[in-house]
Amino acid sequence: MKIANLAEVGATNAPTADTIDSVFSALQRAQLARRASFTLDVRIAQLNKLRDSLKRHESNIIAACAADFKKPAPEVKLTELLPVLQEIRHAKKHLRKWMRPKWAPASIGVLGTKSHVRPEPKGVCLIIAPWNYPLNLALGPLVSALAAGNSVIIKPSEMTPHTSKVIANIVAETFPPDLVSVIEGDAAVSQKLLALPFDHIFFTGSPAVGKVVMEAAAKNLCSVTLELGGKSPTVVGPNANIKKAARNIVWGKFANNGQTCIAPDHVFVHSNIAAQFNQALQKEIGRVYGKTLEAQKSTADYCRIVNRRHFQRISNLIDDAKSKGAKIFEGGAIDTDQNFIAPTLITNVSNDMDITREELFGPILPIIEYDDIDSVIEQINDNPKPLALYIFDEDKSFAKHIVEQTSSGAVGINLTVVHFLHPNLPFGGVNHSGIGAAHGEYGFRSFSHDKVLMEDRHSLIHLLFPPYTGWVRQLINAAVRILG
Ligand SMILES: NC(=O)c1ccc[n+]([C@@H]2O[C@H](COP(=O)([O-])OP(=O)(O)OC[C@H]3O[C@@H](n4cnc5c(N)ncnc54)[C@H](O)[C@@H]3O)[C@@H](O)[C@H]2O)c1
């Protein structure tokens, strides 16, 4: 049966449940038929094809991201293309080692047996992607899934429709539809997909939808990787290199217009250096994005809020903070026609403001002064475990103290966001900020099942089988004594 390739059918017509079912069944059948043929060479050839397609489509990707949220071309290259290309390069280099069965030495109790752990493909996997890094977070996990020998359905975000279309075109051009298919659409399409018995679901998005995904996966007892979000705090200590802190925080916060899961959400700054630090941030914003509103609106380096709904949400956060006594130290200007919000620094923050509760996911940075680091640690621990925690201080013991007292997906010391680009680190959160990990070998393992192969050579384990005669009982008692 010829399978409808949804990329050809057209992005905007939401696929029916029947179409989705038929795509899924085709992937299932093909996965079973191809199972033994996903050799190292085949997987590497798939990755090469994806790399070549990405390179061919570079200008389309840049144009699509610009159309979706005016994302600057250098930022598209750095944060959409490069991470996926790097993921491919890294997987190709290490795949032979990752795929190798791992010998498990026998303990005394199982002497005479031979055992291995072999990573096997999970099977047919679903990747659901968000809009904020629309290409990177759809195709990065695809690299891990293909490296691990799976077939995949990708559901890109409907909020970045141009990039979604480019992803569909790239996939349709690169892979047979029963190996990788793209199904475009919104939450309703996503839920139709979630009802199917996938072998693994890799979801990137909000904690609220993460719960929907996990609940749906439970119905099929399907494993999940959840890459979620939340508020990632930043702590600037009394001995911070202020200029370095400002440079890194401005980049981490305002790149992609603050729409980054690991962006510094808010900053705690020691009161001794707060005035200097605020000025350094202001100066850095001026240096990077322009000192005047006109400059900030016209620079090609500043992207936009993805849509009117999010623009309104963030504007409301600013209004709510102002009405409760916050001071706009820098920025605060908005332009509704462009979904533009200037890089904004907010001081005089209090706990009754909405900015202290929700993930901000926009270009607004609340700055909270502190005197006692333990009260900051208490506040961090009163909230869900963050995806990232950033610490700026030249005194190593300052960071050590915070690291030991808190839990988070990652800790960045004197940097922000860069850990995403490290191919040998697991990328993921804890509890509310995520379950499981992406990137490199960790991504490969997320899409693999550790299958055990144990073979009897000349073990004596049968001596312990029933009937439990006196002699067998003595042997079991001895085993418990010696091995227990
Ligand atoms: N940990 C990470 O790697 C990472 C990366 C990027 C974004 N995020 C998080 O993602 C969020 C922003 O992205 P978003 O707004 O696209 O997230 P989202 O959860 O609203 O949507 C993500 C995906 O889920 C689908 N979806 C939405 N509602 C659904 C529902 N009710 N049922 C089933 N599917 C549904 C969407 O169509 C989209 O494809 C932020 O919380 C951010 O921190 C996390």
TrEMBL record:
Domain Aldehyde dehydrogenase: 10-451
Molecular function terms, GO-annotated: aldehyde dehydrogenase (NAD+) activity
Residues spanning the signal sequence: none
UniProt xrefs under InterPro entries: Ald_DH/histidinol_DH, Ald_DH_C, Ald_DH_CS_CYS, Ald_DH_CS_GLU, Ald_DH_N, Aldehyde_DH_dom, Aldehyde_DH_NAD(P)
Coiled-coil annotated spans: none
GO BP: aldehyde metabolic process
Record GO cellular component, one term: cytoplasm
Pfam families per record: Aldedh (PF00171)
Active-site residues, as the UniProt record annotates them: 227, 261
The entry's keywords: NAD, Oxidoreductase
Family that this chain belongs to: Belongs to the aldehyde dehydrogenase family.
Name recorded for this polypeptide: Aldehyde dehydrogenase
Record organism: Alcanivorax borkumensis (strain ATCC 700651 / DSM 11573 / NCIMB 13689 / SK2)
Organismal lineage: Bacteria, Pseudomonadati, Pseudomonadota, Gammaproteobacteria, Oceanospirillales
Encoding gene (name): alkH
